[in-house]
Amino acid sequence: MSSYDVIIIGGGPSGMMAAGRAAERGRRVLLLEKNRVLGKKLSITGGGRCNITNAEMDVRTFLDHYGENAKFFFSAFSQFGVQHTFHFFESHGLPLVTEAHKRVFPRSQSAEDVTKTMKAYASHSGVTIRTAVRVDGFIMNEGKIVGVKTNHGDFKAENFVLATGGLSHPETGASGEGFSWLRELGHSVTEPNPDIVPLTVGEDWVKNASGRTLSFMKITFGEGKQKFLKVGKILFTHFGLSGPLILNSAHQVKKLLKDGDVPATIDMYPDTDVVTLRNRVLAVFDANKNKQLKNVLKECVPHGMEGAVLEQLDTELAEMKVHSVGKEERLALVDRLKAMPLTVTGTMGFEWAVVSDGGVDLTEVDTRTFASKIHPNLFLTGDVLNVNRPSGGFSLQLCWTSGYISGSHV
Ligand SMILES: Cc1cc2nc3c(=O)[nH]c(=O)nc-3n(C[C@H](O)[C@H](O)[C@H](O)COP(=O)(O)OP(=O)(O)OC[C@H]3O[C@@H](n4cnc5c(N)ncnc54)[C@H](O)[C@@H]3O)c2cc1C
Which of 210, 218, 313, 399 is deepest in the core (most CB within 10 A)? Predict the structure, then answer.
């Protein structure tokens, strides 16, 4: 049985970072990846451009994005945070650019280049890389992890990094066996759920608006005390809603979905109060009395949403001359512009999710080293950890940080 100092299970971003760093420190490292290539998910990140991190240089402000988990991360992100990530990639020949909302991308705009950089880092540091090797479980001796079983035989090591990722986009290799091993090893693993994920909607008007993007909308989810709202860009799709605003609302919406479908409304003019909007629509109507409503609507409804709004009113209104449209219908039109009703019925699932939430609770991990508190020779990185975070580079930064630090301690 071949023996190493460290075995890394999973050749995604966190696994490659951990492998490269450990080998750079002189450890004999074996990286095992079941796909034929490394970084299959990394290569499709950021729509093929890879949002590598978020250029928020203040550690505490950056960590605010990890919500209640922020308190676990100060030491780790001080050891290897955003500035280190910039330095790491630029010194490995991959210049970065910062775009809107502090999102950072490779200047080449190619996620594939990020994968190549990570692969080169691992191999130049001396990592033994074995692809198309599937790990089937740990080998234990008197309660201690001593090796792994694979479809190409057993391998022994002193230390192990579990970097098998979460469950989003199963076609990239995300199959979740890492979570079952962790449960067998005594860890409590919160059941993974799709997160940063598009939402499905019941109403046809939403699906009929497929392909439209509304750049400044307010969407309110839920009712009563549970109600919450977000403002930003909404993308309509053939199944419902997407776009960064929706993806980043999914975590909260999922909590409401536990009690059934979630009612929501879209305010298409969040900056305009009802009275002002009523006056504006009245002025448009007054100036176009003899035209058919369908030809006038574009002056008071966001581009591309005319059909959706009409569908919500009375479709026969479309053909009517504006002077025949009554006050009640005019006010109903404004009500719709301020609150188009829809029903969120679910999420698009793991196939569409950017990440899955769930994973190992951080209270069971020493986050100064990313070692398991139950098995000190096992390190946990990236999406294996139960960390809720928004889109914007925060997932990959967690991979770079947890990968580098675990690689520094194995
Ligand atoms: C479409 C999409 C776009 C995204 N865009 C961004 C973005 O722009 N910015 C951002 O910050 N985050 C983004 N993410 C999230 C980011 O990709 C993940 O957080 C990140 O890939 C997690 O890295 P990881 O190393 O934990 O695991 P993964 O990248 O999932 O890698 C795990 C690896 O382990 C391997 N593996 C699993 N089981 C075994 C086994 N039994 N034996 C051997 N190997 C195994 C898998 O094949 C896989 O290659 C995106 C995700 C998706 C799906």
Answer: 399
- Predicted confidence (pLDDT) per residue in 297-316, tens digit: 999 999 989 988 988 887 78
Share in percent of the chain as helix, strand, coil (round to 5): 40, 25, 30
Candidate from 7, 41, 97, 387 with most ligand 1 atoms within 8 A of CB, to mutate: 41
User: Of 187, 181, 177, which is closest to residue 362 (Cα–Cα)?
Assistant: 187
Distance 239 CA to ligand 1 centre (A): 25
Q: How far is CA 99 from CA 106, 128, 366, in A?
A: 10, 36, 34
CA 362 to chain CA centroid, Å, is 19
Mean pLDDT for back-to-back runs of 10 residues, the chain (410 residues) = 93 98 98 98 96 97 95 96 98 97 97 98 98 98 97 98 94 90 96 94 93 94 95 95 94 95 97 96 95 93 90 84 93 96 96 92 97 98 94 97 98
pTM of the model: 0.90
Ligand 1 neighbourhood includes 32 CB (under 6 angstroms): yes
Q: Which two tokens stand for residue 227?
A: 């109600």
CATH 3.50.50.60 domain position(s) in the chain = 2-193+356-409
Ligand 1 site, residue 43, Cβ cutoff 6 A: no
Fold of 2-193+356-409: FAD/NAD(P)-binding domain (3.50.50)
Q: Distance, CA 52 to ligand 1 centroid (Å)?
A: 13
pLDDT of residue 87: 98
> Half-sphere exposure of residue 132, counting CA atoms within 13 Å on the CB side?
1
The predicted structure's pLDDT at residue 162: 98
Within 25-150, residue ranges assigned H as helices are 59-63, 70-79, 82-91, 111-125
Best CA proximity match to 37, nearest among 151, 148, 122: 122
